[in-house]
Design brief:
Length: 420
């Protein structure tokens, strides 16, 4: 095979990224080429990583917190649903890199000031001569913004994407909105409150997130149908389901079930039509949102850059050919939090009902208590036998007259005279 034919065959490996359509031609030539070159022993994940452009080649200049940084020091190669990408502030699970005996502790970069100059700025080269296989019919970069502790899966709805074409300076303002569940809702079931606390999920290899749960559910489905795991998904532990990575042999199987992979019902409370539910969707087990979560809202503005020596912001006197500049920064130093709490407690319902009845019909909770009291008293008097009367004591009290309290004067009685 000529060098051009070899390059064309290697391009077919891009079908492992997107299995949404079935190719008419087979992969026999590519399979034979890889078998001969690697002597029937190769890892598809390592192969796809080696074909990925190096971060050091596409990231020319970087600055963070108003300081110039070496791009390879703050960026690393990580897995996303788009394959291998240059990632910043992304916590990679240690068991996702089994080829390393010692995995360094991931570094989380914190921002204390909301300012354009204290954000992340990157000058990027599009490498327009190396577009062998593209996922989008355009040139430039796809920038994904997501939580650093979760796998960036677009179907979960927690990933924001920005397209940066060549010769543009892109400004991406971030606004953070947090949600916090109070301890009051813990007494209710997960189904009723509709979210999961971090300490309610037990796992030896990852913390709970909606992304991780949905990805695990999808990987479970792919394993059940095709007995493999796509290379761009994290291993999620050294289990049976993480042993074999999907190769070109599995592309037809992945294509067959591609549509179903992205029609996911995250938890049982969502009811669908029975036919649609059984044939075209994957039902996951309790992939509820997190009770404590952070979401990132973005606002984008851009300006064009001319091809010449140009005073680009933060990078003066730059010889611009086809580069682009990306600025990502927080627009507000404060974060708004939404509290998840019980809407009404029992005594609030009682007060609301009593106030409504009192306003419209002159009826109150006190009236209910009085009615219950009188009904109970009536029933007791009606159905209970009368109690036996005890003999009363004889009244020995005599009448007292007022004259008895007055002093009596002595009366002198004169004897009649006796005359002889």
């Amino acid at each position: 095979m000529s060098a051009k034919e070899i390059v064309n065959e290697l391009t077919n490996l891009g079908d492992l990224y997107d299995t949404s359509f079935m190719r008419e031609s087979s992969y026999d030539n590519l399979r034979e080429l890889l078998s001969k070159f690697y002597n029937n022993s190769y890892d598809i994940t390592d192969l796809m990583e080696s074909l990925t452009p190096r971060c050091s080649d596409i990231l020319l200049e970087c600055s963070f917190l108003n300081k110039k940084r070496k791009c390879t020091d703050i960026f690393s190669l990580g897995k996303t649903h788009n394959g291998f990408c240059c990632t910043f502030n992304y916590v990679i699970e240690p068991d996702d890199m089994p080829k390393f005996t010692e995995v360094p502790e991931p570094v989380i970069y914190l921002v204390g000031t909301a300012s354009f100059y204290y954000g992340l700025s990157v000058m990027m080269v599009p490498q327009l001569d190396d577009y062998a296989y593209t996922l989008l019919p355009t040139t430039g970069w796809k920038v994904m913004i997501f939580d650093p502790y979760g796998y960036p899966d677009l179907s979960s709805g927690s990933v924001s994407e920005v397209l940066v074409p060549p010769l543009t300076e892109e400004f991406v303002q971030l606004q953070v909105v947090g949600s916090h569940g109070t301890d009051t809702i813990r007494m209710h079931s997960v189904e009723k409150r509709g979210c999961i606390f971090p300490d309610e999920y037990e796992s030896n290899y990852t913390s709970y997130s909606t992304n991780a749960c949905i990805v695990a559910c999808r990987v479970e489905h792919i394993w059940a149908k095709c007995k493999c795991r796509p290379f761009f998904y994290p291993r999620q532990g050294f289990t049976e389901k993480s042993r074999r990575t999907c190769t070109i042999e599995d592309i037809h199987c992945l294509t067959k079930y591609y549509e179903k992979q992205y029609n996911i019902v995250p938890y049982a409370r969502i009811n669908l039509d029975s036919d649609f539910e059984n044939e075209n969707v994957i039902r996951c087990n309790n992939c509820y949102p997190e009770c404590i979560d952070m979401s990132y809202l973005i606002q984008i503005s851009e300006t064009d850059i001319k091809s010449s020596y140009f005073n680009v912001t933060l990078y003066p006197n730059t010889n611009v050919k086809d580069q682009s500049i990306l600025h990502i920064y927080f627009s507000d130093p404060e974060t708004g939090f939404l509290r998840k709490d019980v809407h009404y407690r029992w005594y609030e319902y009682l007060s609301f009902i009593g106030g409504t009845y009192g306003l419209f019909v002159g009826f109150s909770i006190v009236s209910v208590v009085e009615i219950i009291y009188f009904i109970t008293s009536y029933l007791l008097e009606t159905f209970l036998p009368p109690a036996a009367k005890k003999p009363s004591r004889k009244n020995t009290t005599r009448s007292i007259y007022w004259n008895e309290f007055l002093s009596h004067s002595r009366v002198n009685v004169e004897r009649p005279a006796i005359r002889y």
